[in-house]
Design brief:
The complex is a heterotrimer. By secondary structure, chain B is mostly helical. Chain B contains three helices and no strands. In chain C, a hairpin with a 4-residue loop joins strand 1 and strand 2. Chain C is mainly alpha-helical. In chain C, helix 2 packs antiparallel against helix 3. Classes of the chains: A mainly alpha, B mainly alpha, C mainly alpha.
């Protein structure tokens, strides 16, 4: 039983070792000639403006909540999918009802304007 | 095979951490996170018992708990935001208009 | 693992299905109704509740025997039907008293009524749950809606605070409840009440510490909604902060639902643990009614006073749970209908006094009501008499049944304590009456109640008196309820 885990541990050691060695080698051996352009977050992109830790537009929050709810409910389709064939027609109808309730709530959210961006 | 008692004890430890956190912390968000921890401890115990018993009831309940926890988080955060707009604080101790 | 899914008997869940369609439909209908005419949503909700009530009542004759569906996780018996009617009645009255109140508070939104229906749905599932999972889902459906309703006036500081307190405590306790369910599952391998009972009997688990601990946790989880000590602390805060119609609603419906679930779990699921839970409930019962009544004496705010009084009433009703006999269940069932009448009425009066800049929940707001509005004062006195348990009101009959059940089961000391508590309760109910009859009125702006509120007050007032003078019809219904419920045990 315990032997079965050895390959995993080996892979773990290899992965960690490779990462450590690669970072160490590049810091020790690589040439360092810093200049402002190289130090900027995006060397060949738009210059970043301001701090990332600023207040968010409150709309993100509503969208995040809606996403959370709708996302989590998908968990119910997993057991349904596993036993889909055995559940037969009843299972299918059950899921149709489930999705229908979702659709109703989605239409409500849409109608209340929670998905509009301005 | 991990014995069932280990899983139960592990979940009890996490449950206790969550409970202590929920009772002692003063920031509403940390209280909410602690409560989520309690629910997840319950989930661990349920899955453990379910696999030891060989029936699916525990897993069914665990799935329900996951969804209910999401609903609770949504409602809770909405209430906190409403409160924050009124009061500009998320400290439980400062929320004390109602007493006796 | 082999899974077979028998087609469930959907005819037993018709009321719940109707409720889901109604609540979801209401959310969609609400989108098309202009902002200043949200009352229409309330009317639709009210009509729907009446329809569901009639449909539910139609089951009564057929349900002489309990019937289960969804593989035994959902049970429909007269006990469940009786409580469903209590919820639907309470919801209907709450909608009536909300119509105008929401416009005064400027939060007239259609979601209010939809949430109320979802909450009722949760409670209907709760009383029909024969499986701890179903009961838990019912509790959460109810609780999540109530949290939002309690904080519905989102610009009011007290209101959002009440919602947050209720939410944090409720979610915390639901975690504990869940652990209780898990422990029962771990000890017996099932969450279905009938199977749990069978396993306990078969394996002789009646003294299993795991199950005793689980019993404590379940009692805690349901005790929060019941507002029994030591989980009553949220009640006064939430009752004061929440919109008054919701306060009235919370004080009756979730309490009834939690009691029904408690009775079902303790009688049908873990009844072999009776010696343990009797000790537990004895202490809780004594503490709950004493704390409720004594603290109510010191309140100046009527909503808070009624909150503590509702804590005390939870104590009286626990007498019926403790008795564990047929009269006890009959008493609980009857008392909840009586309690719905009188408590909705008393809170309705507080709403009646709501006017610009005055909440109407201070005792001083009742000053001299007998001179300015004599009829209103008389109705309030009826509700107060009923709450205090004085004949000829429905509250008296209910209390009588509960006390009789407890005496029959041999809890003499507890009944003596309850009687003593009823005397204490007289004092604070009398304070409101004194303010109305013996103090001179302050110049008041004209009261302008909505027609819904007047209708609701008349209905509950008449019922309170009618079932106090002539309790037989309701009593025999409650008796049938208790009879089919206790049949399960033998």
């Amino acid at each position: 039983m315990k032997d079965a885990y050895w390959p995993l541990i080996l892979v773990l050691l290899l992965a960690v070792g490779f990462g450590v060695v690669a970072v160490l080698m590049s810091t020790l051996l690589g040439p360092k000639k810093p200049d402002p352009i190289k130090l900027s977050p995006y060397e060949c992109g738009v210059d970043p403006v301001g701090d990332a830790r600023m207040p968010f537009f409150v709309h993100y929050y509503v969208v995040a909540l809606l996403f959370l709810i709708f996302d989590i409910e998908v968990v119910f389709t997993y057991p349904w999918a596993v036993y889909f064939k055995k559940l037969g027609l009843f299972g299918l109808l059950e899921m149709v009802v489930f999705i229908a309730v979702f659709l109703a709530i989605f239409i409500y959210v849409w109608g209340r304007g929670a998905l509009e961006w301005e | 095979m991990i014995p069932l008692s280990h899983i139960i004890i592990f979940s009890l430890i996490i449950f206790t951490i969550g409970m202590v956190g929920a009772l002692s912390r003063r920031n509403v968000f940390i209280v909410l996170m602690s409560i989520e921890l309690m629910l997840n401890a319950v989930n661990i115990a349920l899955i453990g018992v379910s696999s030891a018993m060989g029936n699916l009831i525990g897993q069914v309940l665990a799935i329900f708990i996951i969804t209910v926890a999401a609903g609770e988080a949504a409602v809770g955060l909405a209430i906190v935001v409403a409160l924050y707009r009124n009061r500009l604080t998320v400290n439980v101790d400062a929320i004390n208009l109602l007493k006796w | 693992m082999n899974v077979t899914v028998p087609m469930p008997n959907l005819s037993l869940v018709v009321p719940e299905i109707l409720m889901v369609i109604l609540a979801c439909g209401l959310l969609l209908v609400d989108l098309f109704i202009p902002k200043d005419r949200k009352r229409v949503v309330g009317y639709i909700a009210l009509a729907g509740v009446v329809v569901v009530g009639v449909v539910t009542a139609a089951f009564w004759g057929k349900m002489a025997q309990p019937a289960t569906t969804f593989s035994g996780t959902f049970v429909l018996d007269r006990f469940a039907l009786f409580f469903k009617e209590v919820f639907l009645f309470t919801t209907g009255i709450t909608i009536l008293i909300s119509l105008k109140y929401l416009e005064i508070e400027k939060v007239s939104l259609g979601e209010y009524y939809a949430l109320m229906l979802f909450c009722t749905l949760g409670m209907m599932i709760m009383v029909s749950g024969a499986d701890l999972i179903v009961i838990y889902l019912g509790i959460e459906t109810m609780a999540l809606s109530v949290y939002v309703l309690a904080g519905f006036m989102k610009f009011d500081h007290k209101c959002t605070e009440a919602a947050l307190k209720y939410f944090l405590l409720g979610v915390f306790i639901s975690g504990i409840l869940l652990y209780g369910i898990t422990l029962i599952y771990a000890a017996t391998g099932s969450t279905q009440l009938a199977q749990v009972a069978a396993v306990i009997k078969e394996k002789g688990l009646a003294k299993n510490p795991l199950l005793v601990l689980a019993m404590f946790m379940l009692a805690a989880g349901l005790g929060l909604e019941i507002a029994m000590a030591p989980f009553h602390f949220w009640a006064p805060d939430v009752y004061e902060g929440a919109p008054t119609p919701i306060t009235a609603f919370i004080s009756v419906a979730p309490k009834a639902a939690a009691f029904a679930a408690l009775v079902r779990i303790f009688y049908h699921g873990i009844q072999l643990l009776e010696p343990q839970w009797q000790i537990l409930l004895w202490i809780i019962c004594a503490v709950t009614m004493t704390i409720g009544n004594v603290t109510a004496l010191m309140q100046q705010n009527v909503k808070r006073m009624l909150a503590y009084s509702s804590v005390a009433h939870a104590g009286y009703i626990l007498l019926g749970v403790l008795a564990a006999n047929q009269v006890g269940v009959q008493g609980i069932a009857f008392y909840f209908f009586a309690y719905a009448f009188m408590n909705m009425g008393a809170f309705g009066l507080v709403i009646y006094l709501r006017r610009e800049n005055i909440v109407g929940d201070d005792i001083d707001d009742f000053k001299g009501l007998a001179q300015t509005h004599p009829l209103l004062a008389v109705i309030m006195v009826v509700f107060l008499l009923s709450l205090a348990g004085i004949p000829p009101t429905a509250g008296f009959v209910g209390k009588f049944l509960l006390f009789a059940a407890a005496i029959k089961a041999g809890f003499y000391w507890l009944v003596a304590l309850a009687a003593l508590n009823s005397v204490v309760a007289l004092f604070y109910y009398f304070r409101i009456a004194k303010a109305m009859y013996m103090q001179s009125p302050e110049p008041l702006p004209q009261l302008s109640p909505g027609r819904g509120l007047v209708l609701a007050l008349v209905v509950v007032g008449v019922f309170t008196l009618f079932f106090g003078i002539y309790p037989q019809p309701l009593m025999s219904l409650a008796k049938d309820t208790a009879h089919t419920f206790m049949m399960f045990l033998s």
